[in-house]
Design brief:
Elements: E1 4-12, E2 16-21, E3 24-29, H1 32-38, E4 45-54, E5 59-64, H2 67-77, H3 84-93, H4 96-105, H5 108-111, H6 119-136, H7 141-148, H8 151-160, H9 166-173, H10 182-195
Parallel strand pairs: 3-5
Antiparallel strand pairs: 1-2, 1-4, 2-3, 4-5
């Protein structure tokens, strides 16, 4: 119904944004990734790619700063057991790049870090989406992430969602054994960051 909405960003919380377009305030649910990209645009013009979710008792709009994130969201809600809430939780925990890395590496634990997403559901996501996303984004990170992405970039992508800067994450990673599995590096780095 709506491809995107362009308007003045009048309200922004970590759950939703309101865009005033033509005198109408559109409330769009957003991921933490989109929220972080909108923080400097309050009271300025912004564009969000949209998905309208129709339920018996509600019409909910979801907004995404990038079309790639919208595409991943649509794929996620096509997986049985993943509704819009769980899809937004995954996209709030992982960037599209780190989600691609988790898919490429079959890393269900990384996806299961999202609130409300269990390990079995995360494994189902990998089984159903790995090949689909590789076909849809043949020249992107979904195809090349396992070869091109380093643990450092995956950790930075994952932890930057929580508001840490790249330099803070790098300093914390220096205190962590980088020979561990990726999810353990992330957990240990977060622990170091939390202690500060």
């Amino acid at each position: 119904m709506y491809s995107y909405i362009k308007g003045t960003l009048t309200v922004l919380t970590n759950e939703y944004a309101v865009l005033d377009a033509g005198g109408i305030g559109y409330k769009l649910f957003v991921s933490l990734n989109t929220y972080s990209k909108l923080t400097n645009l309050l009271q300025k013009e912004a564009t969000l790619y949209t998905h309208l979710n129709v339920k018996e008792d509600a019409l909910n709009l979801y907004g995404f700063f990038e079309s790639e994130e919208l595409s991943v969201f649509k794929h996620l809600i096509s997986v049985s057991g993943i509704g819009p809430k769980a899809a937004m939780s995954i996209l709030s925990t992982l960037t599209t790049d780190s989600f691609a890395l988790a898919l490429a590496n079959g890393d269900a634990r990384m996806i299961a870090q999202a609130q409300g997403v269990g390990l079995k559901t995360a494994q189902k996501v990998i089984i159903e989406l790995k090949d689909k996303l590789a076909k849809e984004f043949p020249s992107s990170e979904f195809q090349s992430s396992s070869a091109a992405s380093s643990p450092m970039s995956a950790v930075v992508d994952t932890l930057s969602v929580y508001g840490f800067s790249k330099s803070q994450i790098s300093q914390a990673m220096a205190k962590v054994d980088s020979n561990q599995p990726l999810e353990e590096i992330i957990r240990q780095t977060l622990k170091v960051l939390g202690s500060k």
